[in-house]
Amino acid sequence: xxxxxxxxxxxxxxxxxxxxxxxxxxxxxxxxxxxxxxxxxxxxxxxxxxxxxxxxxxxxxxxxxxxxxxxxxxxxxxxxxxxxxxxxxxxxxxxxxxxxxxxxxxxxxxxxxxxxxxxxxxxxxxxxxxxxxxxxxxxxxxxxxxxxxxxxxxxxxxxxxxxxxxxxxxxxxxxxxxxxxxxxxxxxxxxxxxxxxxxxxxxxxxxxxxxxxxxxxxxxxxxxxxxxxxxxxxxxxxxxxxxxxxxxxxxxxxxxxxxxxxxxxxxxxxxxxxxxxxxxxxxxxxxxxxxxxxxxxxxxxxxxxxxxxxxxxxxxxxxxxxxxxxxxxxxxxxxxxxxxxxxxxxxxxxxxxxxxxxxxxxxxxxxxxxxxxxxxx
Length: 377
Known about the structure:
This protein is of the alpha/beta class. The protein has helices at 7-10, 22-57, 86-110, 119-134, 159-168, 174-178, 216-233, 250-253, 256-267, 277-285, 307-316, 325-328, 345-348; strands at residues 151-153, 244-246, 273-274, 293-298, 320-323, 341-343, 353-360. It contains 13 helices and 7 strands.
């Protein structure tokens, strides 16, 4: 990814069936390559944006493909040392993915109608593992001065991955994994059955919270964070240093109870609630080189999830600027916001959607050089 791609490799040349003049096409390509080489990518992007604006003004019926270039590729010499053993973590992540897959497949070989989710954890495994290895804080004890542990609300369909991780830790046996979704048959062979989704009633020593009903996880996490603030403010229990982690998918966050509860979190400033939005933005910022762009998108209409997240990020990262919508996507004219892409059901006849483009210009004056790293994800 870090090696420049030769121009002739990118050139389709006469292979395009609609190309009536391949020689002229090649001249345009060479001119554009020369522009990049002589004046840099910023000027090249400006010219492309101007051509797109002109095409729209002339009503040519053309628009660019909505795919972004590989702007986040970081040269090897710019990568800092990973805060852990990346090779071991990658190896463990691969084993956990495989064990989760094998557990679900074996369960369905025994009973073909058991079902089970595979792709949910496979797609989010790195997020889970980074949380387990570097963020989630286990309980030290209940004595004064001991950390009482974070609260973690796991995405329910990813439960097989958490079981597979517990197997590597020695907390679950192979017989336990063989009885996924078979709670009644498991005791007969000396095993414990593993419930489909996180459920502390069925597995009280394993799961903290039930999250299997779509929408129950997000709203519960928000009210737990609020109650922890209440305990601290009233002097009943010191919850300082403890976090509430919510790992959720679009299915949960699109529920009306989830979206409405977010207003409570924003109104009361629940800084102990980590829905991973701000942390993901901060983590992604390390991957963006000067001139690169970072796109933040949500399926939400709430300002606290959209504009306020962007404003907080820009305030904390002065090397970035918000790219106005007319510059980032000049052909998109149906937004309800002048600077960001904002779609609403009332105006656009679609679900709520928000996107903001932020570009790294240069490092802040007087600050330490900002390191770039390849994501562990």
